Amino acid sequence: MILSSISLLAIKPCTTGGGRIKFRAKLSNPVPEVMPYLNSVIKTGLYIPSAKTFTYKIENHIINIHDYDLTCTQLTNESECYEMIDHLFDLINETWENRENITPNEETRERPNAIQLYKLLPQKKGCRDCNQASCMAFSSKLILGTAHLKECPHLKDEVFAPNYLSLESHLQLLGYETE
Ligand code: SF4
Predict the structure, then answer these.
(1) Which end of the chain is more exposed for a tag (fewer CB within 10 A), N or C?
(2) Does 66 fall in a domain?
(3) CA distance to 2, 16, 21, 104, 110, per residue, from 178 (Å)
(4) What's the domain range around 12?
């Protein structure tokens, strides 16, 4: 085993509210050598080798591993936090133990940019219902984490439901909470 333990350090409310909680935990040791293998196994993860950071999403939870730190968002109660810790403990150890059968991936998947987000917005000219000058201004704020998808009311239209899901995935890859 590469990890001998993961210890829960703190539980706090998620910044997005809704009664959800997030936790911070401490790894028994940093696991940078496992990250290229995790990056291969988890196809939607964001691995940044220079920062030795790996971020990915399971359902609505955003997981971040960096140095001794492990964080996870959008949990409902303390027992779910412990279940997630058990899951991550097994994932990291099993991935490492199985490394001979996994081709490590050192690539950083492309981070979404403002243009990509813009293309998914409703693009109603002169609308400004989000209090931004344009959809492009709104997408720039989304990238910076200073605007929220809910601020564009037109994204709630059924026709934009697939766009909303794509936008959520992009923003979660950047580490933002979207609920
Ligand atoms: S509310 Fe939506 S459609 Fe209107 S300008 Fe803002 S992002 Fe564009």
Answers:
(1) N
(2) yes
(3) 32, 7, 14, 30, 19
(4) 6-101
The finding on whether 140 has its CB within 6 A of some atom of ligand 1 is no
**Is 128 close to ligand 1, i.e. is its CB under 6 Å away?**
yes
Residue-level pLDDT, tens digit, the chain, 179 residues? 999 999 999 999 987 777 899 999 999 999 999 999 999 998 778 898 988 999 888 877 889 999 999 999 989 999 999 999 999 999 999 999 999 999 999 998 877 899 999 999 999 888 999 999 999 999 999 998 889 999 999 999 999 999 998 898 788 777 777 76
* 129: its two tokens: 């219902």
Q: Are residues 89 and 158 in the same domain?
A: no
Handedness of CA 107, 109, 110, 111 (dihedral sign): negative
pTM of the prediction?
0.67
Domain assignment of residue 106, yes or no: no
CATH number at residue 18: 3.30.310.10
Smallest CA separation from ligand 1 atom 2, residue = 152
Same domain, 51 and 128: no
Q: What is the DSSP letter of 98?
A: T
Number of Cβ within 10 Å of residue 164's Cβ equals 18
